[in-house]
Every structure is written in C-alpha cells, then in structure tokens.
Amino acid sequence: MAVHPVLIDGHWIPGQGTSTFQSVNPATEEKLPGEFPISPWSEISHALDAASAVSKETRNWPGSRFADFLESYAEEIEERAESLIEAAHAETALPRSPRLKDAELPRTIGQLRQAATAARTESWRSPIIDKANGLRSVLAPIGPVVVFGPNNFPFAFNGISGGDFAAAIAAGNPVIAKGHSSHPETTRIFADAALTAVRESGMPKALVQLIYRTSHEDGYRLVSDHRVGAVGYTGARETGLKLKAAADAAGKPIYLELSSINPVFVLAGALRERATAIADEFTGSCLMGAGQFCTNPGVVVVPAGSEGESFLAAVAERFSKAAIGTMLGEGVRKSFAAGVDTLLKAGAVLVTGGKPGGGKGVCFQNTLLRVSGSDFLKNPPIFQTEAFGNGSLFVMADSTEQMEQIAESLEGNLTGALYTDTAGSDDNAYTRIASALRTRVGRLINDKMPTGVAVSAAMNHGGPFPATGHPGFTAVGIPTSIPRFAMLQSYDNVRPSRLPAILQDKNPTGEVWRKIDGQWTQGDVA
Amino acid sequence: MAVHPVLIDGHWIPGQGTSTFQSVNPATEEKLPGEFPISPWSEISHALDAASAVSKETRNWPGSRFADFLESYAEEIEERAESLIEAAHAETALPRSPRLKDAELPRTIGQLRQAATAARTESWRSPIIDKANGLRSVLAPIGPVVVFGPNNFPFAFNGISGGDFAAAIAAGNPVIAKGHSSHPETTRIFADAALTAVRESGMPKALVQLIYRTSHEDGYRLVSDHRVGAVGYTGARETGLKLKAAADAAGKPIYLELSSINPVFVLAGALRERATAIADEFTGSCLMGAGQFCTNPGVVVVPAGSEGESFLAAVAERFSKAAIGTMLGEGVRKSFAAGVDTLLKAGAVLVTGGKPGGGKGVCFQNTLLRVSGSDFLKNPPIFQTEAFGNGSLFVMADSTEQMEQIAESLEGNLTGALYTDTAGSDDNAYTRIASALRTRVGRLINDKMPTGVAVSAAMNHGGPFPATGHPGFTAVGIPTSIPRFAMLQSYDNVRPSRLPAILQDKNPTGEVWRKIDGQWTQGDVA
C-alpha cells in the first residue's frame, strides 16, 4: 500500500519518515485503506523554511490577495463536496446529512467567504491615526501559523479549512496545518483543493502546507520554533497544555480551545412553565453528534425537589429511548468512560446509561448522572471532570443561594446558559446566578442550549482558562477571531509616502474603518 | 527603626513577616532611613482575598466610577508632588528637574487622566452588536491585576501609578501593586494618595493595595494564584521569564516588557547631510537618564568607511566630554558592566569609556563599542546582549545588503529607527532595511531617536518576544493598552433588559463607539 505524500512548499512530496498510520471507520471499527506518514523533524523544518519565505514575500501585500485565495478555495471545496462528505463520513461516522452536507460543510465554506470579505476590507486591522503625535498604528501579519485541528469537526475546525485556518490566512499569514489523525483522508482532499486555489489565485506555493502527524516531541519543537509566528490548537486539554508550555517558553502566542462543561441552569419558574420543551431541547443538544461538541451541555443545575426530579425523569426517559450515536473513535469512548467513572467514584449516582455499546460501532449508552448541590460543593473540581460525549451530570440544588455558589465554584467555560420563566418569577435568581456565571464563561446564554455557535462578529467561542489559554480572544467569529494572528505595528514620524496604504491620509478603499483622532470613520484624514 | 506597614484591604497594617529591606541613595551609596517589609504569603493571600471581593462587588459598575477614582487620584498626586519628587530623587538619583518634576510626574498624572476619560466613555470596550444573530459582545474586567513596576521610572511605570496600573483600573479591576525595591518610599507616598482617592471617590477600600517585596517563590505563587485575573510586569528579562512561566502554567495572562536594544540605522545619505545633528541627537538619547530607558538606543548600524568612522568619532568625542550620570543602583551598574564585558569578549572593540566610576555615586563611564557587520552576523545573539545603561554598540556595515541581513537577524525589539537623507538617495536602502526591521519591532521610527514614548492611542510600546511576551499588545497608550486587562463577554439571546447598559439598544451616553452590524457608530440600535 502506497503511503500518501505530504504537502510541503507547494508540492506533494513523499514523506521522509518511516512510520505511518491509518484511520479507523468508527462505524465498522475497521481500518480505512489509506496509509499516511508521520513526519520527521527534517520534513517539518522544510515546511517552516517554506512558510518563512512566504511570510517575507507577502508581508506587505494587500488583504485582497488573501481574499482572492480564500474565495477560490471556497469554490474548490464546493467542487469536492461529495468526496469530502464521503471521506468524513467514513472517518468520523458523522451522518452525511444533515450534519456533514447541510450543516458543517456550508458553515465551513461560509466562514472562508466571511474571512475573505474581512481580508479584503481590512477593517479588522484597526488602523489608528494620531495626527498630533505623528503616530499611526495597525495590526499586521504575525508570521507562519501552525494550526492543529480537533477530531470532532472534520470540516469547520479542520486545521486546513476551519476557523483558525480562515483567521490566520485572512490576517495575511501562511499556514502549516497539522491534520487530526482520525480523519487524514478528509484533510488530504482539503489540501488538494487548497493547492489548486493557491495556484489559481497566484499566491506563493507554500501558503498552505500539510503534515498529518508528528511525534509529541516534534510537536513541541514545532510550536516553539523561531520561524513560527503563532499557533492555534483545538483539542484535548492534556495535549494542549503541553503544547502551550512549549510555545509559552519560546514567547510564541498560542491560542487554545481545550475543554468545557458548559453549565446549564434551569430555574424553577422555567420548569413550571415549559419543562417538556426544555427536556426535548436539552436531549437534542446533549445527544446530537453523540455529544461530541465543544459546547455540549455537560452539567445541568436544577432545583432539588419534585420539579427538578420530574424534569430529570423526563430527560432520563428521552435518553433511554434515543438512538445511541457512533462516537468518533475508540479514544473518545475510553475518555468518556473514564470521565463517567471519575464522576461515579466521586459520588455521583447513575440515572441511566453508563455502559459502552448499545449502538453501531464505537459507542456508549446515553448517560445521565446526578449529584446533590451540597455534594457538588464539597469537591467542585472533581464534579467538573469533562466527560466528552453523550452524557451529562445533573446537580440538584437546594436553593438559589446554592446555585449561585455552584456558579461561583466553576472553572472557566466556553458557555453558560440560564433558562427562566417568561413571567418574571425567576428574575431575582437570574440576577444572582448570572452575575456569578458571567465572569466564568465566554458566552452567556438565555433560554437556549449552548450547542450551535454562530459565525458572528459578536460571538465569543472562548472563555477563561482552562476553556482556553486567554479570556480575551474568540476562536469563532469574523472578523473578531482574526487579530489573534496579528502583531501591532506602530509608525512614528514615518514619512507619508512610506506608510502602508491603510495608514496614509487617503482612505485606500473608502471602506476601511479607521480611528482618526479618536473617531471611527471611513473617511480620509482631514 | 519602625518598619513601614503594607496597604492591605484599605488599611495600613503592620507587615506579618520578619524580614525587611532598605533602599539606597545611588548618589551617596548610603542606605536611606525607611525600613520596608518583605511580605510573607499569608499577607499576599490576604490582599488577594480582598481584591477578589472588590472584583465581585464592582464587576458590573459603570466605568465612570473608576474614572472618578482616577481623577481624584491624579489630584492627590499633584498635592504630593513635592514629596514624591524628593523621595524619588533620593531613591533613584534621577534629577529633580527637568526629569522628575517637569517630565515624568506630569506624564504620570496625564496618563491617569487619559485613563479616566477612557474609563468614562467606555469606547475601549469595543461593544459589538449583531442583530440578526441575537448576539452582543463587549470587553469586561478580567479580575484582580498584579502590577510589578520597574526600577527606571519611579512615577510613570510604578506599579501603583504607571501605565499598567492606569490601564488595569480603567478596565475596572482592583490592583495589587508590587513596588520596586529600589524606590519604596516613593511608592509609599503614591499609596497614601491612592488610599485617599479611594475614599474620596467612594470606591471599595481594597481597590488599590500595596506590597513592597516578596520572596521569589511567593512571587511565582502570586502570579499563578486562582484569584488573579492578569499580571503586568516591567523589568529585567530573567525575572520576567520566571514569572511568565508561573503565570502561563496557570493560564493567567501576563504582559511583560522585558528588554530591547532598539536598533538605529543611520544611512549614508543622512550622514552626508546632517552627521553633526544626528551625533548630538544620538548622544542626548543614549546618555539621558544614564541610558536607563527601555527604548535606549543600544545598537547603531552605520556604513563602514570614512563617513561611518567620522560619525563614530564625533559621537565618541561627545561621549567622553558628556557628564557621567548616576545610575539607579549597584545592580544596574553590575548588569551594565556584565553586558559590556560580554560584548567585548565576543569581539567588540572599545571606543570610549568601559570602566566604572567617573561620576557621582553609582556610575559607569559613557561607553561606546564597535564591531564590523560581518562579525555581528557571525553571532547575532551575542551581539544583541542588552547592556542597559549609558552605552551603545556601533555596527559598521559593509553594504545595504549587510544592513538588511543585520535587520533580519534581530530579535524582537520595542523600537527600530532609520535615519535617511531628505533628498532621496537613501530611499532604496530604506525600503529594504525597513521591510526587514518592520516585523521585528513594535514601533518603526523615521529620523528620530527611540527615547520619548508618547501616551497615544497609536503608540506601540511593545513588540515581538523577547521585548514582550506577545506582539499584539502595547504597554503604553490610552485606550489601546486597556483591553489587556479585560475578558471578552458575549451575550447570546439574552433578554434586552438584562443586557449591560453598553449593549442595550440605546447608546447609554450617546458617546460610546459601538460596532452595530459591522458599522462603527455612536448612535442607537435602529
């Protein structure tokens, strides 16, 4: 069986290493045919050299060049939609439709096109002009970006097509993508599309490069290499923290999306008003995609007593009747089982599920656990163990005060949601709990489940550590996610003709927003 | 001799530790009378608890409350101007006038007032409203901020009065200031002013706290404590990197300003046109304050040959004639001597100076070294050793190409400056060197020395590692430096009445700039 080549410096070249891997179809638990290389350091270093050369060549290019590439790439992906969907379905067991075809692929293409628009207009660069001091500043490309994609979104977060990729390119940087080992064939097809788009848009051939896998040590070496500008990583916490330590020590910005239990508080009035509807919503949100979403609701806090009990019973009934989804792989199942086990050993009680199997291929029963609010508060860290999959922990809270204490005890999360009634009986409790929750989550939600992350300028798919590595940044949202991959460049007393177009007196397009002497405007410098 | 108390939770309380220290007058090399405590962990933890409580109390307060404090504080400082100048003069040997009285203190007070204005108008919070998606986002306080001030600006970068302090408070956070051990009395007077201002402006009593010194271990523990939101540090690279490692491991954002040699390129045409004027400018910039500025020009690249030689000779003459300044302390002198020694051992040649002494108190001769461009390029890291003080290394470059290579070999710096002629003969060389330099420096300067850092929205007092820990942020400049101490908070489907005022349909002041559906406006949501 031939080993797939890697994409380095604009060419598909045979891997220089001797080790390979294959992906597994989670539905059949059988190996898939393609064999993919593990790249040794020499290969990675080659990619870094090529990316450095691209950075040097393109660092003063207008955003429109990168926009052209992104738009061409979106078209090339559309042309390969069918093969992408087939490959991703085989490698992840995620349903072809609606998930891959009707949701994730359109989202991915839309995100690339949004990024293209942002790259073209350049408003994300926040140009600032201070006439009195002779100072002008602007965000500019940071240099080669390494993007590590996760297992759970083969399109929308793929290192070579997802949110971090789109943001890094829109900021004017070359990308070295590290595909996830669970879906290399999907990633390979994207790389083929990207290479075509690079040629069609006349970009330097090494703008987008792909390696499939490295040793752990070479991963740490990669993110801390002097030729790297920044790193984006979405994935498991343990691996992410090791990469973070390596990048941090070298002073390389690294943006991480690590783990989140996405607490949902359902208050008493909401249960009285619409418990059935909320039970349906929660079940859909928690079991969709076998629960393998960054924003999966992993903890639900409800009032103890009859209303909370009957809500839990209603959810349990739905969980036991719902189809059991196929997971992304054996690693996910093991990790989910370990999470459930940790919670049980800590004193949580099994409500339903709790065992592997019950569905097709790699799977685990839809699982609910419960714990009292006072037990939760005896050891908040252990009860915040992430069990990434189709399960959730219910916390039965004695009072509003206890709910507030639970909110205060939470680690950083991507999201936090509150359900309240429409009549206002929950409003006082809302104020207290939301105020505590607000500083612990990136996105505060009302009357809605956390799954579903709009690509919006006002999105925050981020949050305090350990959800991410920095609470000031979002991984999703255009143009808000783009400045992560930029450096701030100030020009002091620089002669007018030497300024980049975006900082000259005349607004280069009449469209870019600039802050001139404290006022945002699309006009020229007066 | 009584030991000065620490300012914790709104009260001057006796230190709980047993160790103390005294500062030294660098002009007399004698100990100054005050004895200051080294705080043990119990005391630091007390401060962290108090700061946490302030964060919790104030997290939804309008910026105007913090603005009131900052304005009151500026007034209180003005009232204590004389004692501040006396204390700082005794502790740092910096001249009373113009440095302390006419430059640094007005700058400090002006910066606090600029921060107050920014806190009041809240435009720094970048509110974003996406009507179609029901999403609204805004920057919000990150939590207690620990600020470590450096030795070289007892007012403008002091942990309790400088740029990081002003930004952290403007962002709505309590501050725990760690004063620099070289000027504790100056810091104490600021704390006295801050405490009065806290009371006058009706802020929580622990908004501003002060400890003077900790053990190294407690410093690492402090920056990684779960109660901390973020850290600001300005100072030596070695200490900064240790604090960074501790904060990074705990996922706490830490903003560092570490070291910079601030390269200055003087091109041939500029030398032909105005060598004398540039020699004067350079001498003033390099020797001012005994060279103890973050933006001190530590490397000068000039063309080899007669023009470069006569420029160097002119500078050397000025250096040998100029008064020798008193340094901030023995630590600075030792470190400067070590830097000079490292450069000499690497092959640099002494032009003038090179020995300790020659002036009043702690001092070192005004020192110039030289090295050829080709020798520099044989070992760029060693020739970029920072010698923080009244000295500089001249690099005699053979060609424009070599200057470009030198620029490409540079580590991250705060600034990079280029002098060119006005007739245009240097323009081609400028383009090549500036393009290389641009990505290595935070602020690119034309025809001006790097010292002098305007407090401007378009300033970048930052740059790539190791100048700072992240190239996207500036430590100086209002409002640009403020978002460092903020988290991003998104509101998804949150009911209108529950949104913070800044995100409600009506612009709360008619003044705050908000991005509504992609357009910056001071208007209401339509």
Report on the architecture of this protein.
Two copies of one chain form a homodimer. Chain A is of the alpha/beta class and 526 residues long. Chain A folds into two domains: 6-13 and 40-258 and 474-482, 3-Layer(aba) Sandwich (Aldehyde Dehydrogenase, Chain A, domain 1); 264-446, Aldehyde Dehydrogenase, Chain A, domain 2, CATH 3.40.309.10. Chain A contains 15 helices and 23 strands. Chain A has a seven-stranded mixed β-sheet, sandwiched between helices. The first copy, chain A, has a five-stranded mixed β-sheet with strand order 21-8-7-22-23, with no helix packed on it. In chain A, β7 and β8 form a beta hairpin. Chain A starts with 5 loop residues before the first strand and ends in a 5-residue tail after the last strand. Chains A and B meet through β7, β8, α8, α15 and β20 of A and β7, β8, α8, α15 and β20 of B. β20 of chain A pairs parallel with β21 (486-492) of chain B, so a sheet runs across the interface.
Would you kindly provide a brief summary of this structure?
By secondary structure, the first copy, chain A, is α/β, with parallel strands linked by helices. The first copy, chain A, is built from 15 helices and 23 strands. The first copy, chain A, has two domains: 236 residues, Aldehyde Dehydrogenase, Chain A, domain 1 (3-Layer(aba) Sandwich); 183 residues, Aldehyde Dehydrogenase, Chain A, domain 2 (3-Layer(aba) Sandwich).
Keywords:
39% helix; 15 helices; 2 domains; 18% strand; 526 residues; alpha/beta; homodimer; globular; Aldehyde Dehydrogenase, Chain A, domain 1; seven-stranded mixed β-sheet; five-stranded mixed β-sheet; Aldehyde Dehydrogenase, Chain A, domain 2
